[in-house]
Amino acid sequence: MSVTTADASRSIADQLPADVRITHHTGADIIADPHPWARAYEEVYSHAIDLADHCDPPITERLTRHATRPGFSLVAAHAGDTLAGYLYGYTLPTDSLWWEGLTPDPGPDFVREHPGRTVGLCELLVTRPYRRTRIALALHAAFLAHRTEERAAALIADGNDVMLDRYAKYGFHKVGTVEPYPGWRRHTMVVGPLR
User: Fold this and answer.
1) How high is the pLDDT of residue 190?
2) What's residue 14's pLDDT?
């Protein structure tokens, strides 16, 4: 019998601390109150919040804009009433700018989107007290468990070797580098198959 992504997600969730629960949220949930999510982001990146990567455009603006995109989903980990981390993303549209400026250019067949081809993973974060508790792995598995896209793509800030290694363990491979927004550091684009 094969193990499904949903089965793997349940297995990982079973290994989390007893008080941690995983919850799923829609775009409407985030738009209704983006502040808890923005506060967690600002806490995680407090050491670098003045870098363009983290403040331009502001996280609240990015969250609410992304929450309106088709296929948006946010998966969160809560320890009791405390937000311990989250991952969110959405389905890339056919006119996506996600791949714009990617070097080296992987070619038109790679970057051409069609409905349901790619889910973009926009943000994965875990607050400091809950790191090294498998929450990131659980969020990743829970987010991807119900996705129907062919592949997933994520951007990892230059110098974040921990996340590059983690995504490699998730089955993602590097395809190039890109500046996601004007003035941001270079980010490594990683892509992994979902089917």
Assistant:
1) 97
2) 63
Separation of alpha carbons 129 and 135, rounded Å: 11
Residues 189 and 98: their CA atoms lie apart, in Å, by 10
The pair phi, psi for residue 30, each rounded to 5°, is -70, -45
Tokens of 184: 């941001």
Gap between the Cα atoms of 6 and 25, Å rounded: 17
Listed as ranges, residues in the chain with pLDDT below 70 are 1-15, 48-56
Query: Residue 100: its pLDDT value, please?
Result: 94
Q: Could you give phi then psi for residue 64, rounded to 5 degrees?
A: -70, -35
Q: Rounded to whole angstroms, how far apart are CA atoms 59 and 23?
A: 21
E-assigned strands of the chain?
20-25, 73-79, 82-91, 118-126, 151-157, 173-178, 187-193
94: three-class secondary structure by DSSP: coil
- In sequence order, what DSSP letters do the residues of 115-135 get, joined into one string? TTSEEEEEEEEE-GGGTTSSH
**pLDDT of amino acid 131:** 87
What is the edge-to-edge ordering of all strands in the sheet holding 151-157?
20-25, 73-79, 82-91, 118-126, 151-157, 187-193, 173-178
Q: Could you read off the pLDDT of 47-59 as tens digits, one per residue?
A: 765 554 545 678 8
Are 178 and 101 in contact, with CB atoms under 8 Å apart?
A: yes
